[in-house]
Amino acid sequence: MSRPDSRYLALAAKSLARELIWFTMCRHEQGEDPNILLFATRRGGSTFAMELIGANRGIRTLNHPFETLSPQLTPAQAAEIPRFYQGQISSLDDNEAERLDNLVHALFDGRVVINAPNRVWQRDVDRVSDRLVFKITDAKPVIGWFSDRFDARIVYLTRHPIPQSLSCIRNNWTLTVDAHLRDPRFVDANLDARALAFAHDTMTTGTALQQFIVNWALENVAPIRQLPDHPDWLHVRYEDCVVRPDATLEMLADRLHLTDVERMHQVLNRPSRSSRMSTESTTNQIAAGRGADVVRSWRGSIERDDERWCNAALETFGIDPELVLPDA
Predict the structure, then answer these.
(1) Is the pLDDT of residue 281 over 60?
(2) Nearest-angstrom CA–CA distance, 199 and 217
(3) Residue 266 in 3-state DSSP?
(4) Residue 125: left (phi > 0), alpha (psi -120 to 50), or beta?
(5) Is 305 helix (H, G, I), strand (E, B) or coil?
(6) Which of 39, 99, 114, 262 has the lowest tally of Cβ within 10 angstroms?
(7) Contact 128, 58 (CB under 8 A)
(8) Alpha-carbon distance 78 to 82, whole Å?
(9) Residue 130 and residue 28 in contact, taking contact as beta carbons nearer than 8 Å
C-alpha cells in the first residue's frame, strides 16, 4: 500500500479542521420555517442565489452537500453518499434513496454538517442557525424525490443554456452527459426515442457549444417538465436576478419568508464567491448596475444559427425555449 502524499494529507487536515470548527463553534436548532433546497446548474448563478438567501440571519448555507468528486470531501460525504457516475444523481435505486434520505435528515437535525461557512469569526456569519439552504447542482433529475420526501421549500434556478454553456467551455469544465445517457432509469423516465437519438448524435458530431447545450437539457429536462405540476416550487431565472433585482428580492422574500431584505441587497452589490470564474467584463457590468448588458452579451459571442439550433434542441427534449429565454 502506498503512503499518502503531502497534498492528500494537507486536504485531509483541512477537512478535519473545518469539521472541528463547525461542531465546536456552531450549532443548528431548526426553527419553524422549513429549510430551502436550491436546485441549479453549475455556472448558472447558483452561488449568487445561495449567498442571496443565506444573507438572512439564522440561515446556514451548505454548498454542494452531495458532491463526491471534490478533493476536499468531508467525512460525511465520503462515508454516506453513494458514488454516482460523474458525480451526478440521475436516478435513485432503493438503497441509494435510503442512504440519501438518512443523510438529509442528519443534515436537517444538525448531526452532520457539510460545506457550511467556516469563517465563523466574521460578523456576517451566524454561529447558531435555525434554517438551512442547500445548493444542489448535481441532483436535478431527482428534484421530485426531494420534494415528496422532505418538508422543505424547493427553489429551482435556471440560466439560459447558451451563456451557461459558454461559461463551462471557457472554464474547461467537463460534460456530464454520460451520467444521464448511461442510466436506463433516467432515460426511460425523461427521454423519448427522438430525444435519445438526438443526444447521441450531438455527442458524436456536435460542436462543443452544442454538446454543452444538450448537457444542460439532460440535467434540466426533469425539473422543467415537472414545474407545471408543482406550483409550490419557486422557479427563478438568473437573468431576472441580474436585470430586475428588486422585484426578484421581493418575490424571494415573500415566497420563502425571508426578512433581511437589506442584507440581501448588500449581496447584490458584491461579487459572489464564484465570480472569479466570470469574465472581468461581466463582473464590472454587474458591479456597475448594467445587468441588461450582461444578459444580452452572449449574443455577441455566437452566430444567429447557434441560437436557432439551441431552441430546436430544447424543443426536441420537450422544453419550451420561452421558459428560459431572457426578456431583456
Answers:
(1) no
(2) 9
(3) helix
(4) beta
(5) helix
(6) 262
(7) yes
(8) 8
(9) yes
User: Greatest CA separation found in the chain?
Assistant: 58
| Per-residue cell: 142 | 431527482
Cβ atoms of residues 89 and 66 within 8 Å: yes
Q: What percent of the chain has pLDDT over 90?
A: 60
The more confident residue out of 327 and 263 is 263
The stretch 287-299 carries a mean pLDDT of 60
Q: Which residues pair with 135 in a beta bridge?
A: 38, 63
Cα–Cα distance for residue pair 240/257, rounded to 1 Å: 19
Average pLDDT over residues 121-148: 88
Rounded to whole angstroms, the Cα distance separating 61 from 272 reads 13
Q: Which residues of 135-170 are buried (b: 16+ CB within 10 A; e: fewer)?
A: bbbbbbbbbbbbbeebebbbbbbbbbbbbbbbbbee
Reported as a single tens digit per residue, the pLDDT across 53-99 is 999 999 999 999 998 887 667 777 878 888 899 999 999 999 999 99
pTM: 0.87
d(CA 258, CA 252): 7
Q: How far apart are the first and last CA of the chain?
A: 58
State the Cα angle at 75 between 73 and 81, rounded to 5°: 75
Domain boundaries, the chain: 6-323
Match 426536441 to its residue by C-alpha cell: 316
Mean pLDDT estimate for the chain: 85
CATH architecture of 6-323: 3-Layer(aba) Sandwich (3.40)
* DSSP three-state, residue 182: coil
**Grid cell of 94 as nine digits:** 432503493
Contact 100, 92 (CB under 8 A): yes
**Average pLDDT, integer, range 242-250:** 88
Can you tell me which residue has the cell 436550491?
38
Cell of 58: 439564522
Question: Could you give the count of Cα atoms lying within 13 Å of 246 in the half-sphere of its Cβ?
Answer: 1
Query: Rg of the chain's alpha carbons, rounded to an integer?
Result: 20
Cβ pair 257, 131 in contact under 8 A: no
Residue 90 contacts residue 179 (beta carbons within 8 Å)? yes
